[in-house]
Amino acid sequence: MSVRKVIEAGNTLLKAKNKIVLDFKSPRVKKVIKDLIDTMPKASLIGIAGCQIGENYMIFATHPRNTKARKLGKVDKLRVFINPKITYKSKKTNLIYEGCGSVADIFGPVIRPEEIEVQAFDQNGQKFSLRANGILARVIQHEYDHLQGIEFIQKVSDYSKIVVKKHYKKDIRNSKLQKKNSKVTKIEYRKL
Fold first, then answer.
1. What is the 3-class SS of 49-116, one letter each residue?
2. Among this protein's residues, is 143 annotated catalytic?
């Protein structure tokens, strides 16, 4: 197991240009993927990008899952996205409070497209397309932003509504609106 430290906002690696992966079998790329997969649950995250562990590659992983504290309903399996490109964003948007392992203990309201489609390669070099909504679409957009050097705090819709973790857990995490907008009803995966 190779758990890495999640780097914090202000570290220049979060804003550095991320390299496109050309060799999916590279030992370095395989190690980055393993480290992302190992670090995500240990850091209590549902998504993590390479730059968050100091590895500037176009790679992120997602795994929206139910926990004792978070009930998402339909969840998704662990996925790796290499060289991702968002190919569709719905005009319909929704608001979900987001947090980030690189911006510890702060949560804020972010408005994003409700449904997206992304094309990427998995860890075996298989190209795929994934269309999703709810928290899965949200975490994909959030991690994709990391690969563009953007942190969620740059997208907060109302800075007066930023809260610390204690208030997020107490008042927002399981609120009706947060649960409704996080509910995943669509996961359409296709090999390309």
1. EHHHHCCCECEEEECCCCCCCCCCCCCCCCEEEEEEEEEEECCCEEEEEEEECCEEEEEEEEEEECEE
2. yes
pLDDT tens-place string over residues 94-109: 999 999 999 989 999 9
> What pLDDT is stored for residue 3 in this prediction?
94
Considering the candidates 55, 98, 117, 143, report the single residue annotated as catalytic.
143
- Give the residue extent of every domain in the chain: 12-191
- For residues 41-47, give the mean pLDDT: 93
Count the helix, strand and coil residues of the chain and give each as a percent rounded to the nearest 5.
30, 30, 40
Please tell me the predicted confidence (pLDDT) of residue 8: 96
Domain 12-191: CATH superfamily, name plus number: Peptide deformylase (3.90.45.10)
